Amino acid sequence: MAGYFSVFLVLLTLGSGLIWLIDHLIYAPKRQALLDMAQKSAGAPLDEETVALIAPEPVVTETAKSIFPMIAAITIFRSFIFEPFQIPSGSMMPTLLVGDFILVQKYAYGIKDPVWRTQLVDVDKPSRGDVVVFKFPLNEEIDYIKRTIGLPGDKIVYRDKRLFIQPNCKEGETQQGNLVCNEYNKIDMEIIKSGEFNLKGMTSVRLTESLTDDVHDILIYPERAEQKGRYYRQPGTPSDEWVVPADHYFMMGDNRDNSEDGRFWGFVPKENLVGKAVFIWMSFEFENGPDDILPGWVPTGVRFERLGNIQ
To answer: Based on the domain organization, do 56 and 137 belong to the same domain?
Structure first.
């Protein structure tokens, strides 16, 4: 089932719309009949104060009529077009930082009903490299955001902090994008900056990664050991290899040494997809320390340079 706020919006839209419809069909005509009789008796048009006394519109009806158009528009926009999300953790650094506010394109991978999330219309499928919001497979009340690494049928290897992909090619294909068919492709990486971030005393290395022709940045911490003992073990494969099942996707965070992703819990079924992250529309800094007067959730600055499309 969808998040509580989505359900609340749908119920509020349906409730206010139903109140407005019932009033329009049943009670408004009765009020108008009373006004027509009163006006005929008076022999002159009635002023607003007299109208309010003779046939007052109930407060509930007035409120429903005033909020219905706005709530309906918000519900449609949020459910089917774009939904705002806030980045709560650093698992997608450096692409997304804590305090980034993003827009997620809800219709990118299909149109779902906003309550039960049943697929209504098929639109497209995730492409390798897409940054995707999805319902966490182990707890669908939680939204996760990661990058699409493996498509259905792909074979993925993550070994010594390097990514290898054998794409699932159609018969007769020799190449899929920049990946060669029928072999494990070592994904190209290039170091561009060191020491930018810190994790428990360890310094980061920022690299570009070329999953597709559109490169993106990732982070690794060379001093941090890989946690292969915690990796999701798929039957019939080594601990650091995965074969993506049909109608599933393999997701990883760009902060490779600080991300709980598909390496640890497996695959994302297509019905769990929420949408494609496409735009950072606001980004706040939160640098209040324990000795500051303001609480930690109060922004200390705005990172205007981060606003724009998500790569």
So the answer is: no
Catalytic option among 106, 135, 146, 276: 146
Q: 10 Å Cβ neighbour count for 16?
A: 22
Of the listed 16, 91, 204, 283, which one is catalytic?
91
Question: Does residue 41 have an active-site annotation?
Answer: no
Instruction: Give the residue carrying structure tokens 């939680």.
Output: 142
Average pLDDT over residues 86-92: 95
Of 64, 81, 98, the one marking the end of a domain is: 81
Single out the residue of 154, 117, 178, 177 nearest to residue 247, CA to CA. 154
Backbone angles phi, psi at 186, to 5 degrees: -80, 115
- Whether 146 sits among the annotated catalytic residues: the reply is yes
As a whole number of Å, the end-to-end CA separation of the chain is 30
Helix pair 59-76, 4-22: axis angle to 10 deg: 130
- Looking at the fold, whether 47 and 175 belong to one and the same domain comes out as no
Residue 292's domain is classified under what CATH number? 2.10.109.10
| Tens digits of residue pLDDT in 194-246 | 999 999 999 999 999 999 989 999 999 999 999 999 999 999 999 999 999 99
Residue 205 is inside which H or E element, if any? strand 202-209
Contact 251, 261 (CB under 8 A): yes
Same domain, 94 and 70: no
What phi, psi does 139 have (nearest 5°)? -160, 95
Per the listing, tokens 């650094």 go with: 93
Segments forming the whole domain that contains residue 57: 4-81
Q: Do 188 and 230 lie in a common domain?
A: yes
C-alpha 293/C-alpha 64 separation (Å) is 42
Secondary structure class of 252 (helix, strand, coil): strand
Please say whether the beta carbons of 187 and 210 come within 8 A: yes
**DSSP label of 306:** G
Structure tokens at 259: 């991300």
Structurally, the chain folds into a number of domains equal to 2
